[in-house]
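Let us begin with a simple case.
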Amino acid sequence: MSGSDPGGPAPDPERVVLHADMDAFYASIEQRDRPELRRKPVAVGGSSSRGVVSAASYEARRFGIHSAMPSFEARRRCPDLIFLRGDMRKYARESKRIFAIFRGYTPSVEGLSLDEAFLDLTGTRRLLGAPVEVGHRLRAEVREETGLAVSVGIGPVKMVAKIASDLAKPDGLLEVRREEVRAFLDPLPVSRLWGVGPVAQRRLASAGFTTVGDLARAEPGALRASLGAWGVEVARLAAGRDVREVEPYRAAVTYSEENTFAEDVGDLEKLAATARTHAENVARRLRRDGLVARTVVLKLKLGTRVAPGPRGYPLLTRQQALAEASDDGAVLAAAARQLLERAGPPEPVRLIGVGVSHLSRPGEGQLDLFGPAPEAALRSRLNRALDSLAERFGPRAVVRADESRPERAALSLQIKRGEDDPEAGPDPD
């Protein structure tokens, strides 16, 4: 095996992948709908002292402002920054319109978030034309229908298409043909590869690899000796050997919800009330997708920083298996409360989250010979009634007395399965 061939399976030689990524999605919507914001630095996200930027207009990005940046830092860099809390209902509505356009070109659409997706164009040339023509038509249709810009990358594998769309921003299109992959990838920094974050980048640099080409040309034996099996795997990506397919119907593995408090919270009852709200929201999403969960997970981020950076706060996670898989918020909340009491946070908490895993369809597990208990049947009817009210009037129309409305440090671009309009009230339409 030569140094130029890290081995592993080769991608499908006929595959064509398009990656579409909306430009500054939240901020662009606000600028479209509010003319007074156009050509001004705009940020959308949490505005508290612990708020985080979810999206920044390109005018704001000239000051170095980007998503996931703390709000106080964004304001420091741009005192004239216009900060907006955002409207998740509006953004989710626009996302649905955009994804409907995507699916007009191929049914194989893998949504990564509200504002980006992979489209598999393999085998569509005779019907739709050359991939680059498809990309231009898609961009024009999105702009005509929504007034928003989308950047497009086209390549023979997902990773190349994703990198191409990043480099095409803002409002551009870049196609990388199969024979151009190595020339395209080689000069890029290793941080462009999937799975290579700051820590991995330092690890690769210490081993003498700073560009993608350095990795692609490395001898597998040397990689394995210095970096183990991970080094060989990342070298395959460096050579363009990304065999992952576009997955339009990926099954959910976990559901979760979390929030960061404006100030650290040490009061157990307030933490429990917030956990209950998260549990109810997760349960509603489970019911909407027709799923039940067997394991409840509690996440706590403590308030005392022990290292620099966003990961510098200690993180505690605890989980508990349920006696029976459930989609009942009361059951999930009770388990979260037990986990909270057992964790006994040693100090005030910065963030709390509740999640579930080990998902299944009702009835897939062991059958109950005696059927549901009367109390469980009553709660099931109550939950269905609450779901109907939430769908008609919004998720905050009816809440339990011991719930606490959580504060968001930022709006999420993530597509949450089972949730049509996160953090939204009733649709005015």
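The second case is a distinct protein. As before, the sequence precedes its structure tokens.
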Amino acid sequence: MRTRDYPGRFIVIEGADGAGTTTQSKQLADELDAHWTYEPSGNKIGKFVDTMISGDDFSPEAIALGFAADRMAHLEEEILPRLEKGRTVVCDRYYHSSFVYQPILGADRTWVEELNKHALVPDQTVILDIAAEEGMERVSERGHDGNIFEDLSFQQKVVIQYQELVEDLEEDITLVDASQPIDAVFADIIERIEK
């Protein structure tokens, strides 16, 4: 993985579907006066990745390649230029999602990690930890995105894999209880970030 050598700060918010990654990452970006972004990104590759995960037409390997290509373009076009200028960037999902989701689909985890070896390691990653049942209930309430990941049994595996990432990766990663009210979750995120 590419290690940090930029004056800006790179923070990632991760978690299972319904954990609140978008809500919390946007709020954090506002609080820190940071640039907010997300994956899959809004570039051409990211939009195609959205298409790829809306049905079962593509293999787990093709999906993993799509995410990795989008990630590198996202880094080069949007994230690194801001970090080089000393800005803080907050990203809603990053390679941690690939390490969790694509292997559950069937791609080899070591291979997925190899695909992402040139991605920048974040300064801090916060994983929003929530029971799959509660996460999927939230997804139902807000309206489904229509992607292949919105399945309870799949999300139960996702939650476990995210919890294991904290031990698996030698990075600054922390878990936050996302079952709390939104304000309490955000307070915990701020506390972890400030530490």
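The domain at 9-194 is CATH 3.40.50.300 (Rossmann fold). The mean pLDDT is 94.
Keep these points in mind for the review questions at the end of the chapter.
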